[in-house]
Amino acid sequence: MLGQAHHPTAQQAEVIGAAPGPMLVVAGAGAGKTETMAARVVWLVANGYARPEEILGLTFTRKAAQQLSRRIRDRLGTLAGIPALTDIDPTGRLSASLESITPTVSTYDAFAGSLVAEFGLLYPVEPSARTIGMTELFQIARRVVAGHTRAMTGNPNPATVTDNLLSLVGELDNHLITATELKQETDAFTALIDELPKGPRQRGDGMTKKLLRVKNTQLLRVDYLSLIEELAEEMRRRAVTTFGEKMSQAARLATAHPRIGQAMRRRYRVVMLDEYQDTSHAQRVLLTGLFGGCDPGLTVTAVGDPMQSIYGWRGATAANLERFTTDFPLLDDTGSPVGPAPKKQLTVSWRNPGTILRAANMVADTVLGDSTSPRRAVQPLTPRDGAPAGTLTVGWYPTEKDEHAAIAEALKNIRDDAAARGELDLWTAAVLIRANKQAAGLSAALDRAGVANDIVGVGGLLHVPEIADLVAVLTMLVRPGNNTAALRILAGPMVDLGLADIVAVGRRATNLAARARRDGAPETPTDPSGDGDSDITGWETNRAERRFAAQLAGIIPAAATCGAGLVDAIADLGEPERYSEQGYTRLVRLGQLLRRLRTMTAGRPVVDAVAVVDKEIGLRQEVLARADPAAEGVAGTRHLDRFISYAAQFSDTPGADLASFIDYLSLAEDKEQALNQPEVPSAPGRVQILTVHKAKGLEWHTVVVPGASNSNYPDQSWESKRTTTWLTDITAVPSTLRGDAGQDGEDPATASAPVLDVTAVEDLSQLQKAIDEHPRAYREADMEEATRLFYVALTRSESTLFVTGSPSPGRTHSGPADALVAMKKHFPDCVSSWWDGEADPAADDSSVPAGDAADDIAEALSTRPETTVAGVFPIDHLGDRRAGITTGLQAVGAALDRLPELSDHPVHTRWEEDVTFLIDEHRRRQSSLIEVVLPDDLSASDLVALKKDPDSFARRLARPVPFKPNRFAKRGTALHRWLEKRFGGQTMLDFDELPGSGEPDATAEKLEQLKAAFLASEWADRQPVRVEQPFAVTIGGTLVRGRMDAVFHFCDQPDTGWMVVDWKTGKVPVGADMEAAQVQLAVYRYAWAKLVSQSTGTQVPADKVRAAFFYIGANKTIEPSTLPGVEELARLIGGPAATPTTD
């Protein structure tokens, strides 16, 4: 009746028609929770329990909020149009309320922000403070740390301090802990350590090294309190805030001022809480303070899945799900609690086929218990009626290389089958990895198989060989004490230095350090940030490199802590006799290159500096030389282009420089999930490589879950896994202060944070024993979270699932995860390959005598491309031509030797470098020909720019620079934000997050004029079916992405009546400018035709979709009579030979 694709199941009907009041709905993966929530809202509205404007829906992501908002509005709109409405509503009151369907649906963060904006002066806080993202917060924190005058215990480097500071601030915000509470708890615990007597048979004073380490960790954490206050003060001075701080403020407001809750309960009578298992303690306090246990007429519905609670590292706690029934109890008419809220389940999966569900349920049983257990939170999932069996493939391989090759071959076969059926633009696939370091090898394997793929997120890109080399050179420019970066360049293909020369460079660094000490220099890293890195074993990416680095660690002294590093030695090599002739020449060239790069990048924006280094070291040329960039599936410079786009985004952050960018990349590699990341759009026809955490809430036709070993997904066999707790981690707060710690009278299984019980401790021996036992409880929780993560990965598949693994490199006892072994046992017909051997401990033996190091390292460095491990860059693209080219190179060198010698005076050398650079720059500017390789991932705006001015587009592509924010762009963004809210969409870009948005807005009057003009236009009273609709389509072999402002449907037939409208705030273009702008509409038209064809199952030709611009200031709708077809768009991208992948 409401336009659903399927009739509700019995479970859904029970939830939809439940009596008003609190209710917990435990919904399994793909169980239709969004549709159920929307239908429940309709039932409550239709039965007079609430008006549309009294509906509040909260979820986590903007995409989810947009989907829920759209679903609620669509269903209420359908209710408004049914003929039976007069029978349901003879008084006409419901019909009147449905004339303006304005439910409020937003993210939890946005709701907290609106609460602070409205009531913040009660706290008091500055309600108008601008909310900043993690990138800008990182910059501010970094500057605070640099200006901190008090010494920190242990003298950690500033990059580490910044990371720790931000993590600790997040913990305090999530758990509503004040600095005073943290210090009091720390003082009490350290006093206990100091006052306890030693135990029986303990020597000395009983203070063991472990106890001393625990005590020092507590004291160091307190050291950070002054930094936390300085950061807070700096943020107040800048009038900025964070989402975490706003949530903390909102929670405290709701607790301290009951009248805020009264106002919210008058405003909202129905509250829908999505993904409740991912809420933090601060969010729980906020929601219970506003809506919990005090209004019998209020309907609060929480929906969540305990098996999808995977964000514990960011403050989420699955304990909130079970505590909901007591936080929001059933009330009688007087408002007195009469029992816990009822709990219902949704266990029919609309996404997963039967075989995949059986595998997922088997994994869930290990956490939730057997289906007969009364303690089980949710019953096993069952497939929908008529669901296919699906395809499950399981494999265990001897090496990671074998595993990746099998994955690439399988995905190539599936993709080729989809292409043969003409369904490539409908096929979606993802490889869901446990850690970013897995991305590069998988991407390389897919490239070799000719399978187009994308690495999603900057953290994964950092492990791509060419990106790792680029970052290493950038690091050497601003972090001369970082030996890890220097060693990668020295030992890698860029310099290809031999072992003896590397050792000589290390000894030169030691000599320089000793000379510095004699001259009275402090024994600190030369790196001004203090971010020296003497641990050269950290640079490796594969087994051969690990062995190599471990051997080098025993040969090269740790120079960084002595005041000089490898980069310093490269700048001051000393006597040439230290090195081989060829090695010395290469080192001199490297030193000259680094000096030139420092000059060329000094003072430049980050993106310019990155582009300069990319060009000067010839990285792009090396990448293009590996394989024909036009060949199917070849990555080409895609990874470099995407990395430079991240650099451009970072450049827009106030105060950004190259040093802070390097620190930010380090944070992104380790804690990317904590950074602001865009939504992950689908990419039909391509394989997306991303972490499981990023994949939550998404789905693909084909899913691969690689690396299913007990080191990636720890189980009971992985006893050696190290577990960190607040006892040894300064970024974690004592569990007694956490909001998810066990509470009196509560089932211990409900708590997420085990508490260290010291009530019966009488001496240091007993305290030591309690401390030793404490991590075990955390280890169990870590294993359960890893299992839940594995479950989330499995349940992303709509049709085909591959689960594979291999021994983790460097892990002697690495074996298949328990879940993978169980799949082999229960699904023997699904096993494609299973290696029964054991990992060879000697394969990763790093304890090789130094005398054997030269032979081993030479072998690792000289291995031919066909036998190297995946990921070594660059490969030897010359192949069999190398011998001839080497002969020719020698002949040219001999001829050059016969030329008259020039002076080798350093001044002359620098003159020559400067003149060469100026001549090259002049030639580039004079040349009218700009040759660039188009990336295989473009936006609709890129196509407009390409059509309008190919030369300017090429220049921008060759040398990306950030666009300067301007008031006209801000005005357009602000108007779009207003339009999205007006039409019920969820804004995908927060205006307050734009660079420069904190500046005075000189265009406010014009903005109001534009709003008035829109309200007076023909579009004001029309309701779009989609707002800010993202898309990704393949045109001419290139993935084109974008976002449509609004889509309207002017009839009831799915194959006709569609119109895409793009709002414009500028002037109406004419001539060639208008012709170029029409390319945007052509892309939108084609994309919507594909989207609606896929969603409705009815083929909608692109020429049946109308598309128009509406210029608001001019009150003019421009709908071109003809638009370029997909063939013309393909020619624009790739020339006459290019053809679209569909049609």
UniProtKB/TrEMBL annotation:
Belongs to the helicase family. UvrD subfamily. This is DNA 3'-5' helicase. Gene3D superfamilies: 1.10.10.160, 3.90.320.10, P-loop containing nucleotide triphosphate hydrolases (3.40.50.300), PCRA, domain 4 (1.10.486.10). Its EC number is 5.6.2.4. GO terms for cellular component: cytosol; DNA helicase complex. Pfam families: PDDEXK_1, UvrD-helicase, UvrD_C. Residues 6-353 form the UvrD-like helicase ATP-binding domain. ATP binds at A27, G28, A29, G30, A31, G32, K33, T34. Residues 515-538 are annotated as: Disordered. It comes from the Bacteria. PROSITE patterns: UVRD_HELICASE_ATP_BIND (PS51198), UVRD_HELICASE_CTER (PS51217). It catalyses: Couples ATP hydrolysis with the unwinding of duplex DNA by translocating in the 3'-5' direction; ATP + H2O = ADP + phosphate + H(+). Residues 354-697 form the UvrD-like helicase C-terminal domain.
